[in-house]
Amino acid sequence: MTPTWVQLAYLACAVCFILALKGLSGPKTARNGNLLGAVAAVVAVTIPFFYLELDHVALILAAILVGTVGGVVGARKVQMTQMPQMVALFNGVGGGAAALVALLELGEIVGHGEDVGWFVLLATAFTIAVGSVSFAGSIVTFAKLQDLMTSAPVVFKGLPIVFGIGLLATILLTGITIGEPVLWAGVVLALVGLVVGVLLVLPVGGADVPIVISLLNAFTGLTVAAGGYVLDNTLLLVAGTLVGASGTFLTLLMANAMGRSVANILFGALKGGSTLGGGEASDRPVKSAGPNDVAITLGYADRVIIVPGYGLAVAQAQHALRELVDVLGERGIQVDYAIHPVAGRMPGHMNVLLAEAQVPYEQLKEMAEINGDFKDADVVLVVGANDVVNPAAKTTPGAPIYGMPILNVDEAKQVIFMKRSMRPGFAGIENELLFDEKTTLLFGDAKDTMSKLLNAVKAL
User: Fold this and answer.
1) pLDDT tens-digit series, residues 245-271
2) Distance (Å, whole) CA 456 – CA 434
3) Beta 415-419 vs 364-366: how paired, if at all?
4) 93-138: per-residue pLDDT in tens?
5) What is the distance between the alpha carbons of residues 302 and 113, in angstroms, rounded to a whole number?
6) CB-count exposure of residue 253 (10 Å: 0-12, 13-18, 19+)
7) CA atoms lying within 13 Å on the CB side of residue 55
8) How many domains is the chain partitioned into structurally?
9) In a domain, 285, yes or no
10) 94 and 149 co-located in one domain
């Protein structure tokens, strides 16, 4: 029986996990929430060493050391633009670990002939299958975001049939595991789960990948929760449920922000409806200007709205942008940042990026809050964004992003578009706003161009 002090310690850790999740809901409390969750996790991992007679302690400690070093080094070295890839990898490792633990437990059940209930066997099979799906799917999302493979959907003839066979095989193997548990069924179930995970993510492309990462994160949480039931560990059950529930809500919120269903995001490419990615640079004529001309436009405006995007993150231009906004503010110009829910490559990407540059949170306006203000804006400065301001989402049925709520930049009096080139955004389609007569393009690397623009504004 688990000692009372251990149960109380686990209860405290569970409460800390809940408080940590609450803290992560706001930028002002996110750092403390993250720290609280990390401390609780360390305590939870340490406790078994004090009340259980563990075998292979040296191997366990070595594994913890390797994981700790890998996690710390990876987290410190990863760039903000690569954060989604790291999240995908960490998520995949979690799902894979849960599946392996469940396989080991199944081996113990089979090897010792233990008489366990059908629900425990169901939870074991679920953990193996869904954990494998999460692991394989997360690796594919990592490869797509890291440009190790094409970001466009990968579809082949018969994919739905193969996927359906994989799901049927999963159900059959789960039934075998529940009826008469055998280790080979668990191993095959894991292999089938890996195939299903790959097939689930291959048809997803472009801007849809972060949403799938969130979905796979929910999958991992559910496997950890099921693993907690298998291991009779209430803390794992609580932690996994928190991750599964929050990941599910986040997935639905992101899908709503894209104006599409989760099913369409996952399988839309099978009928040509996915956000495709790719696309060639346009050679249509546009109106462009240099930093000095743009500085005059900004310097004599009364109301300016900034729309940050992934290009800002890639160029690491957020510090120069904040300084530019500060200079404009000192001249009495009202400046706000318009944040689209799926700007960047993960939820909250722009918020974190700008917080890193010490941008006051009060200046960050969510889409629903600021969309009605664009018509009153003298100038909108778009920095590295594209699809989230593309009017095709409202005007072009059949476009990959049609129906996605966007920032109403097209309603502003003047638009300054900072772009490296005329290549389209992740959706792979042209942005007609670029060719609007009120739009001026400022070409170049965002960090270099922003610095020149800042100097030009200061010189006014």
Assistant:
1) 999 988 888 787 776 778 877 876 666
2) 23
3) unpaired
4) 999 999 999 999 999 888 877 778 899 999 999 999 999 999 999 9
5) 77
6) middle
7) 0
8) 3
9) no
10) yes
* Residues 4-46 pLDDT 10s: 999 999 999 999 999 999 998 777 788 899 999 999 999 999 9
C-alpha–C-alpha distance, residues 417 and 386, integer Å: 9
Rounded Cα–Cα distance for residues 239 and 232 (Å): 13
Condensed to tens digits (0 to 9), the pLDDT of residues 194-217 reads 999 999 998 887 667 878 888 999
Catalytically active residues are: 387
Q: Are residues 303 and 450 in the same domain?
A: yes
Residue 349 is assigned to a structural domain of this protein: yes
Mean pLDDT over the full length of the chain: 87
Please check whether residue 94 lies inside any domain of the structure: yes
Residue 212 included in any domain: yes
* Banded pLDDT at 427 (limits 50, 70, 90): low
Domain range holding 110?
A: 90-271
- CATH number, domain of 411, equals 3.40.50.1220
Instruction: Answer whether 0.70 is exceeded by the pTM.
Output: yes
